DNA sequence: ATAGGGTTAG
């Protein structure tokens, strides 16, 4: 911002100079004036001044004008200057070719190259580099690679600059074989000592999915600068090598390499993209303690981490920070805030943020519609969906996933079916796996299990684990052993390591008192060496996120937590609020019945919340698995007995408990 | 007095 202001002041000085200086600008003065010119109108003014003084044809002035117009993106004006140049040198041709390449006009650029040759001027390495670089930067990576291949075919050996931008283009189109050839050339030509080349190689291999080569290139070169760090972290993140990225990042830090906001943003994003939310939160704090201020990219990168662990206080402070910095107008920041507030249980705040985003995009709309879906507010989701279309914003694949799942959460079976059809017939979007999964959930919830099974059989592609998992879940609710066995058989094949499926099937057998089945599934699990998935919950108390997991007694307050739970259990049975054993929905954790202390993590989290906050404070808990019926009943009791609003976000949706009732209407 | 390069994002 400041820089721009300075430039404007500078331009004003130049204009002032042009208007008031009594002697005419000369051929020596104009090129330096043009060099410092940063706006098209000023360039045109200088051009006019040159023309009036008869200097426009001077080779230096003309060349400066040409380069200035190219630099400012005024390609046509540059062309006019160029065509009038009496002696068209390789410099002029190169500039013009670079200009058209940077606009993505590959055809024009190639045409100029031909014209140049017929005029008897041969392109040099700089001409070629300009062509490759321009095409790459304009997003025509494929054209850039083509240009590079042709350059090589014509006997021009790319230098470090050429190789760098060619590698960047290769990464964008994932032409790893071309990349490898370039790598070979780099080794032969000896330019692998060039830092930019090393960085570009790391970037290219990262984008082409070759994590092994990233480390290889990095360890072979001994360069440790900001750029190589950024490329490394991004490359490793893309390839899910999060531990490697964290290790190398800390190495850069301890070596005293001066890392910038991009480096810190990259490592935060790396953690978020690879499921390390708490590490991301930690690194975000560390970044600030090192004096690096987050920018408008950092904020949307870190917000999903806050959202995932429901760190509302952190999210709120990111919101305030964005407000102070003027980031709220940024659609990325806005959409990420909408998502964060919705996932932290504050769907009203999410709406407020959403309404204030000046130019909303599909992601913004999806965030708010998905937010309403998560909270079971189907009417609002549908209303926003209609508004979206009124605002001429095209719904995409994600939008329909949100709308159909909203209908499913609220039991609007026919509406859901309607949107599923409309998606195909009115919007020309063919349903993908996730849409079928939503439909199976929707039909399953309504008890239309046979219809759900028919839909699965009609799918034009092989159903995945989510689809069968959804059917199995509905079978648990409606006690359909036959379809449960069909779904489970597929699931054991598709995702043999997913313990939740075994537990679910075992629970279905148990609910029907089919003990043979129960034992068979348990043996199967034991034989495969599978352990029950550990449930864990998070609760934010006074700006700190606490993680509690079932069977883990490492939390410092564990004695008090257990005491509180014991007391609640006593009160519960005293008041006749005994959980029905028949209503153990979605118990994917399966506690050992005889182990009284093995309590589901959400209960531990709520107990911690109860003893650490003042009476009446709402509690928000998030859980990595679905909430079980037992805990669901307990939460209803606690909300009533303790007079607290409790919200539990499980993998599926939000449950808002208040006065002994849940917003899901006991269906989930 | 006139030409060229790498890294981050829902």
From TrEMBL:
Provide one Gene Ontology biological process annotation.
RNA modification
Give the top-rank taxon of the lineage listed in the UniProt record for this protein. Answer: Eukaryota
Domain annotation DYW: ranges: 576-668
Keywords assigned: Repeat, Transit peptide
PPR repeat positions: 89-123, 124-158, 225-259, 260-294, 361-395, 396-431
The entry lists its GO molecular-function terms as: RNA binding; zinc ion binding
A Pfam family found in this protein is PPR_2
Q: Which family does it belong to?
A: Belongs to the PPR family. PCMP-H subfamily.
Q: What is this protein called?
A: DYW domain-containing protein
Per the UniProt record, the source organism is Triticum turgidum subsp. durum
**Higher taxonomy:** Eukaryota, Viridiplantae, Streptophyta, Embryophyta, Tracheophyta
């Amino acid at each position: 911002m400041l820089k721009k202001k300075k430039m404007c002041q500078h331009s004003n000085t130049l204009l002032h100079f042009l208007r008031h200086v009594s002697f005419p600008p000369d051929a020596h003065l104009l090129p330096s004036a043009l060099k410092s010119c940063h706006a098209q109108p000023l360039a045109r003014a200088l051009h006019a001044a040159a023309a009036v003084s008869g200097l426009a044809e001077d080779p230096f002035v003309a060349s400066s004008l040409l380069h200035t117009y190219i630099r400012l993106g005024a390609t046509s004006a540059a062309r006019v200057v160029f065509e009038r140049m009496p002696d068209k040198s390789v410099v002029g041709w190169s500039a013009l070719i670079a200009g058209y390449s940077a606009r993505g006009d590959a055809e024009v650029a190639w045409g100029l190259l031909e014209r140049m040759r017929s005029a008897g001027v041969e392109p040099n390495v700089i001409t070629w580099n300009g062509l490759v670089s321009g095409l790459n930067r304009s997003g025509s990576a494929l054209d850039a690679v083509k240009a590079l291949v042709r350059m090589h075919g014509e006997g021009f050996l790319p230098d470090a600059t050429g190789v760098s931008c060619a590698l960047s283009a290769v990464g964008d189109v994932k032409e790893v074989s071309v990349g490898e050839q370039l790598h070979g050339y780099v080794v032969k030509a000896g330019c692998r000592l060039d830092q930019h080349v090393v960085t570009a190689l790391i970037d290219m291999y990262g984008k082409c999915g070759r994590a092994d080569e990233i480390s290889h290139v990095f360890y072979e070169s001994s360069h440790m600068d900001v750029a190589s760090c950024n490329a490394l972290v991004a490359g490793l993140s893309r390839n899910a090598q999060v531990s490697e990225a964290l290790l190398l990042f800390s190495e850069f830090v301890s070596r005293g390499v001066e890392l910038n906001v991009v480096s810190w943003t990259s490592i935060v994003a790396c953690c978020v993209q690879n499921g390390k939310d708490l590490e991301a939160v930690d690194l975000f704090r560390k970044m600030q303690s090192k004096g690096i201020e987050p920018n408008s990219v950092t904020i949307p990168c870190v917000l999903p981490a806050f959202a995932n662990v429901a760190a509302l206080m952190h999210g709120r402070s990111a919101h305030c920070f964005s407000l102070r910095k003027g980031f709220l107008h940024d659609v990325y920041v806005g959409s990420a805030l909408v998502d964060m507030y919705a996932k932290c249980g504050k769907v009203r705040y999410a709406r407020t943020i959403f309404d204030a985003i000046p130019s909303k995009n599909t992601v913004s709309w999806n965030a708010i519609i998905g937010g309403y879906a998560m909270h079971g507010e189907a009417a609002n989701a549908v209303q926003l969906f209609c508004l979206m279309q009124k605002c001429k914003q095209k719904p995409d694949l994600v939008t329909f996933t949100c709308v159909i799942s909203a209908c499913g959460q609220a039991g609007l079976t026919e509406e859901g079916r309607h949107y599923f059809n409309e998606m195909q017939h009115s919007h020309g979007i063919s349903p993908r796996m996730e849409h079928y999964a939503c439909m199976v959930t929707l039909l399953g919830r309504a008890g239309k299990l046979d219809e759900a099974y028919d839909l699965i059989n009609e799918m034009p592609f092989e159903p995945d684990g989510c689809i069968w998992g959804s059917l199995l879940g509905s079978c648990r609710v409606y006690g359909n052993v036959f379809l449960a066995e069909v779904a489970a058989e597929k699931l054991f094949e598709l995702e043999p390591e997913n313990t939740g499926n075994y537990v679910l099937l075992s629970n279905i057998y148990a609910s029907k008192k089919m003990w043979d089945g129960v034992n068979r599934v348990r043996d199967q699990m034991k034989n495969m060496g599978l352990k029950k998935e550990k449930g864990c919950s998070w609760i934010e108390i006074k700006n700190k996120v606490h993680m509690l997991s079932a069977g883990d007694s490492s939390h410092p307050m564990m004695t008090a937590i257990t005491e509180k739970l014991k007391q609640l259990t006593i009160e519960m049975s005293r008041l006749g609020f005994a959980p029905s054993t028949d209503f153990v929905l979605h118990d994917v954790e399966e506690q050992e019945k005889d182990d009284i202390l093995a309590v589901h993590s959400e209960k531990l989290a709520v107990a911690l919340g109860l003893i650490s906050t003042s009476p009446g404070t709402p509690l928000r808990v998030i859980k990595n698995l679905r909430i079980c019926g037992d805990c669901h009943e307990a939460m209803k009791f606690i909300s009533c007995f303790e007079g607290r609003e409790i919200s539990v976000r499980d993998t599926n949706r939000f449950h808002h408990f208040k006065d002994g009732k849940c917003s899901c209407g006991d269906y989930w």
